[in-house]
Predict the 3D structure of the following.
Amino acid sequence: MAGLVPELTVTNFVFRRSGGNGRLLTGLIWHARLGGWLPRGGHVEPGETLDRAAQRETEEELGCRTRFLPSAALPLPAGFPHQPGAAPWWVIEMSATADSHTPARHRHQDHVFVSCWLEDAGQPETDVTWLSEPETASFAGLSQDSRPPEEWVAPPADRLLPGAMSAASLLPAPSGQTSRCV
């Protein structure tokens, strides 16, 4: 991928609990140009932070607001004079075909976030589906890198999402406190 123009992108794997059976569901959108189902994501716009880009893309295309789950980023040193931002879980590089941002082959440096649904935020711009882990395993039109790793959603989901919070309390958590999808 050396020599290809790099572009900053974000992906946001969004989870929510099913109202019927309490299963953990993953939100996916239909990507017409690529012809498949993907977790929400897109390009970072000029002047936009990575976490804000992930929130914007999620609100526009999945139609919901979310709360980022903490990544494994190291805590800031005691007394550090600045506040931490939301950290992605991973940063990956992938080759990309021409798109609305770059008319030639290029590469995406993708910052992958994981979050929990908070509330609906209007009509999504795309077709949306919410799937359980068994459904994602066999869902047509879903690429391997768009399937949440089994350990994220395998019962009990609390292995990934420890702690207990109500939907109303899913606001920024105090330092050291964890959150879970409700």
